[in-house]
Amino acid sequence: MRFKLTAAVALALLAGCATPPPPPAPGSAASKIVAMGEMENIEVGAIRVARENGFLTVKVQLSNTRTKNKMMYYRFAWLGNDGFPVADDETWKTLNLYGAQSTFLPAIAPTPKATDFRLEVKTP
């Protein structure tokens, strides 16, 4: 009985010492997404970035991996060369992803000073 108790405590301690996954590489698609909570069953696909008429434009592909509908909130943060915001915070927008749906979120920076972006996502 004592051995089982010791083994259970050791197992619990080892489970708590698991190392977290490494942070995403700078400039990668994963580094552009900030999940404010869990992003279960939502996958980020291709991210397309271009400059049109001096403004940064972005399209981010999101996919619902479940067959049930999923609701989420999102907003873009527009950043300058130094990594700091160059525009006011956008309001949160709602997106309903239907079962197994894939869609693109289009966005245009509000100022030509924007050179990078961050997509912030929340799920209820």
UniProtKB/TrEMBL annotation:
Q: Where are the transmembrane segments?
A: none
Signal peptide span: 1-20
Print the keywords alphabetically: Signal
Checking Pfam families in the record gives: DUF1425
Q: What is this protein called?
A: YcfL protein: an outer membrane lipoprotein that is part of a salvage cluster
Q: What species was this sequence derived from?
A: Pseudomonas batumici
